[in-house]
Structures are given as C-alpha cells and as structure tokens.
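Self-study notes.
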Amino acid sequence: MKIKTAEFVMSNSNVINAPKERLPEYAFIGRSNVGKSSLINMLMERKALAKTSGKPGKTQLINHFKINDEWFLVDLPGYGYAQVSKKKRVIFQYFIENYFKEREQLVCTFVLIDSRHDPQKIDLDFMRFLGENQIPFCLIFTKSDKLPSSKLNKQITSYKKKLLQHWETLPTSFLTSSTSGLGRKEFLEFIDGVNKDVAKDFK
C-alpha cells in the first residue's frame, strides 16, 4: 500500500460524534510514552501528522485521520502513566471504552508495546478487555532499535511465552522502529489485506 493522502478529520471525546462515513477503521493505543505518535508519523511518512511530545499524555482525544480516502486511522489517548489528573484519566477511560464497544466501523486495534519492557499488567488487562469484547487486535512492538538484536529477540520470545499463559493463540504481531522504518511495509500490507477482506461489509 502506498500512502497517497493522510488528512486530519476531527478530534472528539464522544464516539457518537465520530465520522459517519462507512470506512474501515484502525485504532492505535498503548501505554503513555510507548512511541505511538512517532510510529504513526513513520507509517504515514508524515513528520507531524500525529503530535509527538517528550511529555506522556499528549493525546487526550479520539483523533481521526482519513488515509487514501479509503480508511480511518484512529489515534487514541495512551493509558497508564499519563501525567494528567485522576479525574481526566477516569474520563479518558470512559470514552475510550465506549469507543471500543460502540464503534461499528472498527475492524482492528493495534496495541503498542515497548519492546524493551517485560509484560506489564496494564497491557495484559487491556488485551483481556479486547478479548472479552471480541475486538480483533494486533500487537505492535515499538522501539526495536533500542536493543541489540540478540536481546531484542530474547525479549520478544519471552513476551510471547507470557501471553500464551493467558491466550490459546497469539495475536498477529509486528516489530517496528520509528527511527529505521522497520515493519512499515509489512504493517501496511496487513491493513491492505484486511481492507480487501472487509470490503463487502462497507458497501
């Protein structure tokens, strides 16, 4: 897939106000500071499509971007350790949960995981939420360039073994680097394939 156009459409905090167009939708979410905005910009080959920041919690709304006039990329607030008030965090949790439960156009969720870290309870809990609500998801291991290849492979293998303690089969996963562009081709090919598979449902 070649990215021809990538345009911001809207931000909102209520799934009711999300775009009405019947297009396949892909959501990106992960713990704060997992490198989500940098990954989105790398995938779309845009320097500032998604806002990056050294301060966790930059994304605080549901952000819709239309890609190639064919599908929506949805940038969601990070969960976990965002430097925001407890009250705001509760609000985030509420509208994010509503988005996942009510958004009919959502065809896949990409859960971003920092490849340098061992499995975190908050990530595992979120995956369980997706599974319990029958929401398809993939794992995106970010920041793969931050570890030597031998240590990286060991880390990913260990992570998958941990997941198999809770899941019968592993979700599709991608190894990425926003710095080198690793994983971009495979990632976009996956989306292209899903778009073709679900095309009949969006006519």
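Second protein, same conventions, sequence then structure:
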Amino acid sequence: MEKQVFINLPVKNLASSVAFYQGLGFTNNPQFSDDTAACMIWSEHIYVMLLTHDKLRQFTTKEIVDAKKYIGAINCLSMSSADEVNQITEAALAAGGVEPDEPKDYGFMQQRSFEDLDGNHWEVMYMDLAKFPQNCNDTQS
C-alpha cells in the first residue's frame, strides 16, 4: 500500500460539512462514509475524514477543540497555479467559509487561507521554485 495522508476533522453538522468540501472539489467516498463520518477525497493520496464529535470521541479522551476559538492545526494544500489558489479560496467563501487573513504574495509563492464551517484552518498555496531566491541564507564577506 502506498503512503497516504488522512486528515481527521471534527464537525458539528456532517451534511453541511460534506456539502462545503464538495463545493471545493473534494469527492465523497461512500465506502468509508456513514451518518457519523465522511471520507472526502482530495487526491489519490490525500483524504479528509469529517467526523461528528461523537465519532471523534471514539478515538480520543481529550476535549475536542472549538476551532472557531482556538487553533489546533493548520492544514495546507498546494495547488498547480495561483489561479487555482484563488479558485479554491473563492469556492470556500461561497460555501460559507471565511478568509481570516489577507492573501500573501512572496514573489515565489502565493498563499491564501480559509476556515471551514467549524473553523478548521486551511492554507492554500502555489509555489514557483524557479522564482525562489537563490542563496537566501548565504552571507557576503
């Protein structure tokens, strides 16, 4: 089996969260979805598991963070172009998400962020390594 990434997120309203992520281009894998969890596919190797609070409590004894108040993680997706960064962020906003920060342009990297319906934080970025500063850590004598 190839290595894969599964990001598990607590959600208060599973159906609304599934609709939100479908609006961003994720697809649902019904094989691993039920009324307590939904497996949302981003790519062949990246999945987001949306878990109701009751479902998440089956895996932890810790208190579930309110991501609208506290940051527990920042998830980041790389895109193929700056246009794709804007498209997915605009889709998130249209689906009810919020953009907590201003877009950033570092010359070699464009970055935007959004929060889903539960406040889970996502960064989306496009990086052009051909524009990456050369010898940025070198000092001149």
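Instructor comment on the second fold: Residues 71-131 form a domain with the 2,3-Dihydroxybiphenyl 1,2-Dioxygenase; domain 1 fold (CATH 3.10.180.10).
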